[in-house]
Amino acid sequence: MIASLAGLLAQVEADRCVIDVNGVGYLVQASTRTLSALPQPPELARVLVETVVREDAILLYGFADGAEREWFRVLTSIQGVGAKVALGLLSTLSPGELIAAVASGDKASLTRAPGVGARLADRLLTELRDRAAKMPGGGSGTAAAAIIASADSAGSIEGDALLALAGLGFRRAEAWPVVSRLIADAGKAASLDVIIRDALKELAQ
């Protein structure tokens, strides 16, 4: 199995690249996030690799960091999520954004990824909810667990604020961390109008 590749970046396309290692060009499929992190050809590049062996082919998937590769492995273990859909999700959302989307039940963010419809998004939210806190990309395991726990204990003020902000064009994944923190800071004095007002100030920056 190939775990990583280091060599001359020969070519970069929309969803793949070619890395020349001692005269052998390896075709590596990758997310747009990983491809954008690569240097300009022809320069030396290194990617982590997940090798997938099929009856008709050996496929290489490249990642800029371990967090993205771990998410790829988890995503492709879910029914209905193949490598193409997993890369689409990782192109649309960073590992940290995936954790936030799962924690806040943000189906809309997941369906932005190509190949992810409402039904698959529901399955992702269900199957990832217990696993997201342990996944890399959201800070420490304790911090990620706190995101999930906070989402579970969210009150009506948080839900109403998120709905209001969604109506103003803010995605749930970006609004939820701000709203959650503002409510925690305000404590029992939290009010819907104030939370929305303060959240708008931060999100508009």
How does this structure look, described?
With 205 residues, the chain is an alpha+beta fold. It contains ten helices and five strands. The protein has helices at residues 32-37, 66-76, 83-92, 95-104, 107-111, 118-128, 141-152, 156-167, 172-186, 192-203; strands at residues 4-12, 16-21, 24-30, 44-53, 58-63. The chain has a five-stranded mixed β-barrel. Helix 2 (66-76) packs across helix 3 (83-92) and helix 8 packs across helix 10. The longest helix is centred in the C-terminal third of the chain and has 15 residues, at 172-186.
Profile the largest sheet. Answer: 5 strands, mixed, barrel
Which stretches are low in confidence, meaning pLDDT under 50 for 5 or more residues running? 139-154
Radius of gyration: 19 Å
- Gross morphology: elongated
- The assembly state of the depicted protein chains is single chain
Across the major sheet, the strand order is 1-2-3-5-4
- H/E series, N to C? EEEHEEHHHHHHHHH
Mean pLDDT: 83
What's the helix count? 10
**Termini gap:** 46 Å
Q: Approximately what portion of the residues adopt beta-strand conformation?
A: 15-25%
Q: What class would the helix/strand composition place it in?
A: alpha+beta
> What fraction, in percent, of the residue positions are helical?
40-55%
The tally of strands reads 5
